Each structure stands twice: as C-alpha cells, then as structure tokens.
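Researcher: I've got a protein sequence and the SMILES for magnesium ion. Could you write out the 3D structure of the bound complex as structure tokens? I'd like something to compare against our soaking experiments later this week.
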Amino acid sequence: MSLPAPLAEALARFAALRHVLVATDYDGVVAPIVADPAAAFPLPGTVAALESLAGLPGVTVALVSGRDRATLGRLSGVSGSDGALVTVGSHGAEWDDDLGGLLDAPLLALRDAVLADLAAIAARFPGAAVEPKPLGGALHVRNVVDASSAPAALEEARRGPAARPGVHATDGKAVLELTVLDASKGRALQVLRERTGAAAVLYLGDDVTDEKAFAVLTEADDVSVKVGDGATAARFRVDGPAAARTVFEELLALRR
Ligand SMILES: [Mg+2]
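Model: Sure. Here is the predicted complex with magnesium ion in place.
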C-alpha cells in the first residue's frame, strides 16, 4: 500500500528531524473498530512497528486513548511502564507517572484543597463518599442515608469547591466531579512535546476527540493524519488502520 504523495513527503521531512514525537489514538487507528469494544485488538504488525520506532534514537512513541490506561495496556499489549512506549489514558488525564507534569505545584495544591472541601462536605452527609481522581475528585451521594438531603450535599459542593477559581465541575447521576485541569488529547500532546523536546509531532486519530490533538499540531513540520471519513482539521487523511500501519512502517524505514 502506498501513501498519498504529500503525506509521504511530509513524513520524509519529519523523519529527518533530530527528535520527534510519534503519537496515535488507539481505537480506529491501531485497532480496527469492532462490534465488541472489549475485543478491539491491534492490527497485526502495527504495535511491532510502533515498538521498533520507540527503540530508535530520538523517537518517542505514545498511545493516547480515551480508554482508561489499564484497559489500553491490556488490549494493546503495551505496558507503558518500560519507558519505550508511553501510554496516556482517559483522554489525557491518566499518565504513567506524576501525571506526566500535567499538574504543577499550584494545581496539586488546588486539587488537595478541593479534596479537603469535598471530605468536609461528605462528613456532614452520612453515606456520601469522596472518590479521589488524578485531576481532582468526585462527590458521590447515591448512598446518602437521608436521601432527601443528597441534593443539598451536591449544592454545597457546587457553591464551595466547585466555585474555586480554576476548578471545572461536571454533573453526573448522583455525583459531582471536580477537576483542576481540563484534560484533553491536545493538552496531552503539548505536555509530551515539552517533556521530550521534540522538534515535531506526528499524530493519527479517527474520532471527534482527536480534533483537539490535531488543533495543537501547528508547527511547520508537525504531521496530523485523520484516519477515515469525517470533517477534520488534520492536514492529511488515510482511509483506515491498514493505511495507518503503513504510515508507521514508512516512517520506520525512513528513520532507519
Ligand atoms: Mg479512535
């Protein structure tokens, strides 16, 4: 399978740079979309190409998925803990270490303050529970003993910690989730770019959430590739996971 000429040319320029970041979505790119999401395994050869790329000097490779990191690791067969191939889960909120530098000291302090606020509220509503999360915490009121007081607990959380500057609130069923940072695949790529000092970033994705990743690929040598149909801000397009595998294999051949 051969790639469109403009994409092949962009890959050749990208491959010649000293340090590059190769990042990709998982479902629909590395793994074909299947009816059962629990059986979305990689196309044969794709992970091997990514691992070979990760083994080359000056190349960092990352899987950036909406799935939680544990599931991403199980399905892809990539542990993400050996440093060779990075895995980032939950749309950029789940990293292998200290959030990959997502939270600096002020944000860590804000997260601690939010968790303390939520714990104080939960203590006043027996049965309420606080679930710490990487970027904040959630107040669960489903099991509040006096069910009629559950809305009041949520309201206290909205007026208190949720109103702190820099805190983002998301309502769920009997739960209020607070985060100190709006995680996204775009933010994840910015962090990876900063951490690795990569001169350019390649990213492949097939879904709407990948547009946030494409949006941060604004450097001249960045290569954004939409996989499949649909409106996109990506500069290039290929038709499916087999073509995505060709992108990785072509890059591997160029880089070697
Ligand atoms: Mg996808």
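Model: The two ends are 20 Å apart (CA to CA). The pocket of magnesium ion is lined by residues 25, 27-29, 205-207 (CB under 6 Å).
Researcher: Great, I'll pass this along to the crystallography team.
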